[in-house]
Each structure stands twice: as structure tokens, then as C-alpha cells.
Amino acid sequence: MVSGKTEFHCNKGMTATVWKNLNPFWGEEYTLHLPTGFHSLSFYVMDEDTIGHDDIIGKISLSKDTIGAKVKGLDNWLNLTRVDPDEEVQGEIHFGLELLRDAKGIGLRCHFIEARDLAPRDISGTSDPFARILFNNHSAETSIIKKTRYPHWGETLELELETEELSEGGTVTVEVWDWDRVGKNDFLGKVEIPFACLHKTPLVQGWFRLLPLGNNEDDAGGKLGALRLKVRLVEDHILPSMYYQPLIDLLVQSVISPAEVEDGSPLTMLEEVTTVESRQDVAMTLVKIYLGQGLVVPFLDYLNTREVNHTLDPNTLFRSNSLASKAMEQFMKAVGMLYLHEVLKPIINRIFEEKKYIELDPCKIDLNRTRRISFKGAVSEAEVRESSVEMLQGYLSNIVESIIGSVTQCPPVMRVAFKQLHKRVEEQFPEPENEDVKYLAISGFFFLRFLAPAILTPKLFHLRDQHADTRTSRTLLLLAKAVQSVGNLGLQLGHGKELWMEPLHPIILYSVASVKDFLDKLIDIDMSEVPQRAVFLPSVTVKEGYLQKHKAESPQLLSRFSFKKRYFWLSSETLSYAKTPDPWQVRSSIPIQCVCAVERVDENAFQQQHVLQVVTQDNDGQMHTIYTQCKNVNELNQWLSAIRKASIYNRRMLPSFHPGAYRSGKWTCCLQADRATSGCSRTHSAVTLGDWSDPLDPDAETQTIYKQLLQGRDKLRSLLKHRQAAAVRLLGVVLDLEQAHATFQRQERIGPSLGPEPGSEGESSVLYQTQWSRKTK
């Protein structure tokens, strides 16, 4: 048996580990924001070992072009391939190549300047790199720079050529190798320059991406297993804000003008021209747009009013995947995730820790998996059900108590949105027999689409770092079913197929009165006193938890044990920390506006994994670095992403950084002695994990809406007959944006370049959405 997990490389991330399983199911989704210069995305399936390094089972590499060729994304089973060290290359090399012609003869001159982010080949996490230039039978090598992935050579090599070689084709090859004292050297990458290019451009200079040897990957005939992936590439060119303002104006007009509640508004037409598959993305984008405009409550009220007014049977209210339903669902995730953690996390943690065997379905009770309840012998099925009911009642009571006591914790903007929804439903269904409909409308979102899914899959809501095991998953499933019944106010109890849930019916019915009282208190709020952008106010803590902290200025920098446990809080204003989370503890704070870079640290800097650095600049211009260590790569990515998002609009962000530490009079990464020297690696401020806490980006969000309208342009034209004025305005804005994009693309179109700086970040953004399924063997 193996314990499977999957890593993806580019912006590195990792799924949870599925223990002792040859057919793991992950069901995890990641969104990565990547720079436009990336070339490939790699997925590694690992066997996690408690002691020592994890074993690589196999990998899958997908080029940017491969994924981009699929308009709707790639969705397929792919065989794992063996990992070939000669193909595992990374990094870039900076050199200049010149063709010499003078009275002394003909030659090739190569000035090797430096390289960065080379693959670590030695057990210490570094390499001993040297570079080599080859053409025909000529070659020359630089000196070896030991123990670094960021070598600085500053050397010039020359090859003497014969006159007849000028007329030949061929390729000039630059290779980088890791020198080994024992055994053969390890390949680190190569760059190939057609010799003909040197006739046209005598001097070629710049940063070049290192490429693998080009061996064909062996998929081992499926013997290593297969991985099912869903990967979608979204690549956008973001225009200046002025081009999006007309579309923003139309969307704003849809919700602030009461006359536009009929079917002729731009927002209504947007729903009609988008596909069901894209509705969730559209809903999340619109929620962010209206949060940025301070109009999220009127936006939701507009959609909900249309939905309610078009519903004749209260039993079908919000049952479809309409834009209104999806918008409310995404809105709760955007503004209520921290509240969700406060309400559910203590109970979820307790369930994971206790690992009780709980089962009510007689067909699924496994007496071999239960512990003895007494010394009389094996437990009976009735005893298992009795103990399961008792434990489920205890868990459910705690959940309901936590919910009904959380009125003041609930974000005010959520309460206002629910209050408006309650009002619209009450106006549409005022009959006494429909008294519960106004409660069901709110609880349907709050319990069924927010709380129950979080209980069922805590990891997807960041309540846990790992997926639940089989036993805990079953407990969570039963609890989620019970919470759904509470949200339905017990109206459907006894009508389903799962009659074995009947022992929980009394506590569910007992909770209904408390839930109704909670909902009444939840909507008892003065709307005029509530800021609609409450989720993005500076006082909100977006992430918190224990980390191991070490300041770069510490005199114990040489010691790997100099990291001290501290509790960190991150808000949009400060990154602060203290010894414990107790309120009386004195906190140290770093203003977010002072952050200049947030980056990973090489393992060899402290001989520790999962270390990140936060580089800041004080008012006097002095640079400071704080190093913190996370528990695992996922926690590292979460903190990197969260701090980068909080500081994304800072004006003093650095273009480069040192991935090592300064000790013994030099940087461990590039071996430079000057502590103030510029960084040897590019910063990655725009490379983040995408999730509910992404900062507002009105231009990127409006670009997403424009693309949806552009794809539905034919449907939009068909609406011209019935909604002449509104359709004409919306179609005109879409066509204007299309023309603006075409103009900008013509201006940006340039000829091919041999030496661009790889991974350079412009105004374009690349978004990968990755879903994991399973690996079979």
C-alpha cells in the first residue's frame, strides 16, 4: 500500500495525503495566478514517507500550448511517466554570444555572466555548477562555483573557428552542469542558438530559459498508474481602467435604477447569454465587482427580487442553479469564511481528534470496526446504533448551539443581504400557509449551501489541512445530513429513503424553534449603519496561526534551532505576532505598506524546509527581513499567497531578492560578499494561489464579464428585437472593448526575440484551474 499525494510545480502546491491506498481520490481544486512567461505545468505523484524523503511514483508534464489548445480545458486520464533527471531542469542563464571577425581570425566569444534558480542536485539542496559552450567539435568550460544555485561566473570564453565553418548551419549549444567529485556530472539544462542567427545579429545577449535534453518521456505503458486531471487555462490581456468603465456603468445602472428590475437590464441579459457551466465563475466575479462598487446588497436584492417574482410555487424557490442562487452562494464564501471558521472549527477539530465509529444505516454497520463497549463480549448492532445516536446528538447539539449564539459574529453585510431576502419573500408569499417560506429562503442558503458543505468537506473550506479518513468522513456525512434537515426546518423528515435517520428526528425538530429565533435575530439589523464592504475593512484578520519565527538580524543566525514559536495575525493593515494568541500578550506589528517582497527561502539557508521571508523597508529606507517556518508546503503557500495579496498594491515592491540567508560574510544563495547587493532571483509578487480572499481587481473582473458577453455575442444580437435600447447599449460596449483589445494587440505585436527575460510579468495574467481526481495502479 502507498500513501498518495500529488504535487504540482510552477507555483508549488500539494494535495492532501491519502493514506494506504492505491486508488486515491482527492477531489481538490486549485487556482493559480501565474506570470505570462511560464512554459509548463508538472504534476508529481508522491508516496509520502513518515521518515526520510518522499518517493516519486511518477509525473505528468503539460506544456502551456497543450492546455491552451483545449478551449474548455483538459479533462482526461493521463499515464504517469518515469522521472528522468536529465529532464528535471529549471532556471535561467545570463550570457552574451558574439561572432568575431578580424585580422586574427574567426571565433565565437561567450561571456558567461550568471545563472539563477538552478535545480538542486546535491543532497545539501545546492549544486556545483559550471557552464560549457559547444559548436561542432569545439568546446570550452567555465570554472566550477561550488554549493550554489545562483552562480556568478563573470568569465569570457572563446572558440577559434575555421573559415569554412562560417557557411555551415549547425547550432551553438550552451550547457550547465553540476560537477560531482565521484561519478558522472549531473545535467542542469541547455540553451541552443542557431548559428545562422549570429550572421544576422553578431551579438546575442540576455537571460535564457534552460531546456531539458529532450529525451522522449516514457509512460511505462501505464504501469506506474494514471492521474485524472481537469486543467483549464485562462489567459487575459487587461486593458487600462478607462476602457472598462462603460461596462461598469451599465452593470451599476442595473441595480440602482428601480425601473430596471424588469427583463431589459444589462444584468438580466448577461444571465441569459452565459452558459450554466460558467455561471459560478460569473457569479463570483459579479460579487467582487459589486463589493468594489459598494453595491453588493442592491445587486443581490436585484437578483433575488427577480427570482422571487418569477416563482409561483414556493417549494421551487431558489432550487435551480440560477445566477441569483450562485451569487448568494459565492457571496457567503467571499464575506463569511472567517465567520464560518469561528462557528465550526472547534467542533470539526474535535470530531477529527476523537475518530469515533458512528453508523446508523443497518446495511453499513461493521461490527468488526467497533470497540468493545463492555466485557460481556462483542457489541451488537443495536448497541452500535445506540452509541452512534448519542454521539451524533452531542455533535449536532454543539453545532446548533454554536450557530444560534453567533448572531453578533456574523458579518453585518451578510445580515443585511438576508434581511432584504426575507422582505422580498414575505412580500411575494404573504399567505399564512407560507409562513415558513421566508425562513426557508434564508436557511436554504445559510445551512444547505454554506454550513452543510463545510461540515461535509472541511478541507475545501480550509477548516482542516487534510481530508478526513473513512471513519471521520462518515461521521461528517451524517452530521451534514442532520444540519440540512435543521435548515429545512424539519419539514421533510420521514419522507425520504433514509428512514434509519429517524433517531435524530427529535433533536432536529427540537432545534427548529431555536433556528427560527436565530434567523429573526440575524435579520434584526439597521441597514443604514452597515458598510457594504465590511469584509475588506482593515480590521478583518484574513489569516492567523502559529509559525516558527527567526529574524535575519538575530545573532543566532547560524543555529537551525533559533526559530521560536510565535502566533501570527495578518490583516489588510498589519502582520503582527506574539508569543501566544492571548489578548493580553504584547504584539509586534509590521505595517503591510512596508512589505517589499514575500518569498520562499532555499532549504540550505537554515537546513530547514518550508521557510518564507518577508522583506520590509522602514521610513528611513533600511531593509529588514523576517524569516518564518511553516509546518508544510501547503501552509507555506497559504501564507505566501495571503501576505502577497495583502501587499499586492504596494508601490515599493522589489524586483529581485535573495532566496538564501546572509551568514559568514556572504549570501548562501549566490555567494556574494556584499550584504546590500541586489537580489539574485526575481520576485514573484504576482504569483499567488487564487481563492475567496483574493483582493478586488476591478479591471480583471470586468474583463471576465466582457469575455462572457463576447462568447454570447450571437445570443445578445438575438435580443435586439425585444429589448432594443438596453441590448444596443450592451452590445455597443462589447464591440468597443473588442476593438480596443485588437488595437492593443497590434501595438504589442513584436518580432521574435532570442533572449527575452523568461517569466517577465506584464499586464497579462494567466489563470490555471486544476482539479485532481485519482491515480490508479
Q: Give the strand line-up of the largest sheet.
A: 19-18-17-16-22-21-20
> What's the helix count?
17
Gross geometry? globular
- Approximately how much beta-strand content do the residues carry? 15-25%
Percentage of residues assigned to helices: 25-40%
Q: Give the rounded overall mean pLDDT.
A: 83
Low-confidence stretches at least 5 residues in length (pLDDT < 50)? 532-539, 750-765, 772-777
Distance from N terminus to C terminus (CA atoms, Å) equals 11 Å
| C-alpha-based Rg, rounded | 30 Å
Largest sheet: 7 strands, antiparallel
Report the structural category. alpha+beta
Pfam families: BTK (PF00779), C2 (PF00168), PH (PF00169), RasGAP (PF00616)
Region (Disordered): 747-777
Protein name: RasGAP-activating-like protein 1
Biased composition (Low complexity): 751-765
Task: Give a description of the structure.
The protein is of the alpha+beta class and 777 residues long. Helices cover 33% and strands 24% of the residues. The chain contains 17 helices and 28 strands. The strands form seven sheets. Strands 19-18-17-16-22-21-20 form a seven-stranded antiparallel β-sheet, covered by helices on one side. Strands 6-15-28-3-27 form a five-stranded antiparallel β-sheet. A four-stranded antiparallel β-sheet has the order 2-1-4-5. A hairpin with a 3-residue loop joins strand 1 (4-9) and strand 2. Helix 7 packs across helix 10. It is globular. Mean pLDDT is 83; it is low at 532-539, 750-765 and 772-777.
